Structures are given as C-alpha cells and as structure tokens.
Amino acid sequence: MGDHHDDHDDTAYLLKSGRVHLSLEELSNLLRSVQKPTNAPKSGPLGLGGFALTTMTLSIYNAGILTDTSNMVLALALFYGGIAQFIAGLYEYKISNTFGATAFCSYGAFWCSFATYVYFIVPHLPPDKVHEASGLFLFMWLIFTLYMTVAALRVSFLLAALFSVLSVTFVLLVIGDWAELDGAKKAGGVLGMVTAGLAWYGSAASVINTTWDRELLPLGLWVRPKPKYRKENTETVMPLLELTTMSSESDDEDVEKGKDRHRHHHHKERVFLSSVKEAPARKQSGH
C-alpha cells in the first residue's frame, strides 16, 4: 500500500506540474516508437514512370518520327501520365515530401489538362488561333518548370538534369507554336525524349534500388546539411508536453522534491478537513 501511495503521489505531482522528466534512454525509446516505418512504399517510381512514358510518346510525335500517335498520347496522358501520377503526388503529401508532391500532382494535372485541351478545346478553336492557344498553354507550364528546376538543384543530380532539360524542351515547344517553326518543335520533341529517358532512369533506379535494398543505380543525391533550429523555437515543438533529459541522479532528486511538496500540500488539506469536521462537534459541546 505504501508503494502504491508513492506512485500516486508521483503521478499527481507530474500531472500538476505539467512537466514530464525522461532519461535519455526513455526519450530515445519514445522517439523510436513514433518514427515512420522505413519499409513504407515509395511513390516516386510510379510518378516518374507515368511522366516518362507519356512524355516519350508525345515527344516521338513532336519530333516527327511518327505522325499518327496523337490519339494514343491522349489515352496515356489521361490515365498513366495524369491520374496515376497525380495519385503518386498525393502519397508524397502523406510522407511530407513537398517537392515530390508538388511535381507529381502538378504534372499529373498537366497531362489531364493536355488531354482535355486537345480533345475538347482545340476542335472548337479557329484554325489560325490554335498555335497561339497552344503556345500560351505551354508557356504557363514553362514558368512552373523553371522554378521547380531551381528547387530540383537541391534534391539530386538526376532531378536537376531532368528539370533543366525539360525547361529547354518547353522553351523550344513554345517557340515552335508561337513562331510556327517546325524545326523548333521537332528539336523540342528530341529533347523531350531525352527528358523521358532521364525520368525512366529515375523510376527504374528507385524501384530497383528499393527492391534489392542496395544502390545498384545511383541517383546522385546531394548530401544535405543538418537543419539548424533556433533556440526560441524549441518550446513550440511540443507545447503541451515538456520533455527534459537529465541524469538519473537529478531525476531522483527532482522527484523527491516534488513528493515532499505534494505531501506537504496533502498535510495542509488533511489539517483543514479535520478542522472542518471538528467545528460542528465544538459547537454542539458549546451548546
């Protein structure tokens, strides 16, 4: 019973003080228990694969290698390059990958909007205005690709190369549409095939390395420095729970002090309650 009372006192003290003291070992176990599983599936191979296959097919058409593949491109753009890649982006949001989520969701939407534009909008445009609308459509995506290229420079060598080539591809395709230059459009198609090849390599490297649990195909990941946190931000990480790492001796000392204060508080309560109970008896005896 005495041990049970001490445990109750310790718990009451900890709850009232609003502070939890953990040793380094306890804190390590706590952090390990909330870590994300390392074997979680990756959506990168799916997103890059959808982007690569659809881009390759359209680029073959733009380069003039084949001239009757537009309908097949629309089917791929809607389902694999569009919907599948968009789903991959949603999973990247779940694992807090801002770059992957933004890239996959955006280019998934690009392919869906491209299929919609070609199938539903182009047939209703005046023939002499199609090149202007197409150039504007591609120019808007060029702006997005340019700042994603800047971000890709911080992720990996592969993505930096992929987005750089993709940016030049968009530039050539925009020039080809607005200036109505077939040569620029064909050059954009050739670079689009290079872009698709890089994306395919990234997809293959990611899925093969993950499956074999070793780096068989390098991706050229940059070494990221450790994040620097300002001291004033440490209190905002867990505002409802303050974790203090201490040695076992300081833990015991602080708990004993808390138990003494808690017992003193309970002693005052017992004295007060006993005086309240004795008051009616004193009144009766006085009468």
Overview of this structure, please?
This protein is mostly helical. It has a domain of 170 residues: Serine Threonine Protein Phosphatase 5, Tetratricopeptide repeat (Alpha Horseshoe). It contains nine helices and two strands. Strands 1-2 form a two-stranded parallel ribbon. Helix 3 packs antiparallel against helix 8 and helix 7 packs antiparallel against helix 8. The radius of gyration is 33 Å and the shape is elongated. It starts with a helix and ends with a helix. InterPro entries: AceTr, Gpr1/Fun34/SatP-like.
Provide a compact summary of the structure.
The protein has 287 residues and is mostly helical. It has helices spanning 2-17, 24-33, 44-62, 70-94, 98-121, 130-152, 157-178, 182-212, 248-286; strands spanning 19-23, 242-246.
> Could you spell the SSE succession in H and E letters?
HEHHHHHHHEH
The CATH topology of the domain at 43-212 corresponds to Serine Threonine Protein Phosphatase 5, Tetratricopeptide repeat
CATH class of the domain at 43-212: Mainly Alpha
Largest sheet: 2 strands, parallel
CATH architecture of the domain at 43-212: Alpha Horseshoe
Give the strand order of the largest sheet, numbering strands 1, 2, ... along the chain: 1-2
Whole-number mean pLDDT: 80
Low-confidence stretches: 11-15, 228-248
How many whole angstroms does the radius of gyration measure? 33 Å
What structural class do you assign from the helix and strand content? mainly alpha
Number of strands: 2
